[in-house]
Amino acid sequence: MPRYVYYCKACDDHFQVSHGMKEMQESCQLCEEGDRLVRVPQIPVFKTSEINEKKKVGTTVKEHIEENKRILLEQKKEARSHKHDN
Length: 86
Hints:
Blueprint: E1 3-8, E2 13-18, E3 37-40, H1 59-81
Antiparallel strand pairs: 1-2, 1-3
């Protein structure tokens, strides 16, 4: 479940809570005051995998496409060489 940070105007403090995306926190976890909460926007953090930085952008994708083309050609050749019973 996603985590959200809320600011309570009543107690002037922040807290963190986990709930569904369509749900909203109804009361402060610190002072239990209701209707005085503001959800604080958070910047999402994306973790990128380490890729050989010497390659140009898209090189890895192109390599995988070419590899899959070779595999598909081999499978087609193999399928054509088999005799099918009719």
